[in-house]
Amino acid sequence: MVASAKSWIGFFDLLGTRDSAKIKRSDFPTKIRRFNLILEEHARHIKGNAKLRFFSDSAYIECDSASELINYCRRVRWFLFAEEVFFKAAIRDGKLSDHNHQYASKKASTFSIDVKGTSFGPEVVDVYYSQENFKGIGFCVEGEWPKDTLGSFVNSCFPGTGNTKTWHAIRDISFSPKEIGE
């Protein structure tokens, strides 16, 4: 695996959290913790430079290897779907350009302030909207990808909102032969 000066980013959003919360309130935090744990565990196996940022039931990732990000996505999909934890995600070329905000202070003798958070650069907006506009489970792949990764994608589509005659074409990450039992 050779890392490049270019990076690829992804946005994952856990599906069904609102419905889970309505059905069984105790399952809601457990499902989010499992989602985050699997994303974190598999990020440790990326053979390249990577960043992973969580926000409750969603996460952003950046990786400097396109093929490693694709492999990561396949592993995460395999483990989460096997546990019936579904998500929708988008991946594309770009950088998180993240900036951490942290401030803690004790005010007088009785009050304190604790501020933590992360803001992102403009390329994150594109991957977020790609995921938000995607109506399905799995991945929506957009942007520029190295030629040696193009065989990792398949064409797919999803129906337009309220109009079954309108379909939106997308690229998705193909399943590996191991995933489908070949």
Can you offer a commentary on this structure?
The chain has 182 residues and is α+β, with helices and mostly antiparallel strands. It contains 4 helices and 9 strands, in the order E-H-H-E-E-H-E-E-E-H-E-E-E. It has helices at 17-23, 27-43, 66-82, 123-133, and strands at residues 8-14, 50-55, 58-63, 87-93, 99-107, 111-119, 138-141, 153-160, 163-173. The strands form 3 sheets. Strands 2-3-1-4-7 form a 5-stranded mixed beta sheet, sandwiched between helices. A two-stranded antiparallel sheet has the order 5-6. It has a two-stranded antiparallel ribbon with strand order 8-9. A hairpin with a 2-residue loop joins strand 8 (153-160) and strand 9 (163-173). The two termini are 25 Å apart.
Brief characterization of the structure:
This protein is an alpha+beta fold and 182 residues long.
**What's the helix count?**
4
Structural class: alpha+beta
Spatial sequence of strands, sheet with the most strands:
2-3-1-4-7
How much of the sequence is in beta strands? 35-45%
Tell me the distance between the termini.
25 Å
Radius of gyration: 18 Å
Low-confidence stretches: none
Say how many strands there are: 9
Q: What gross morphology would you assign?
A: globular
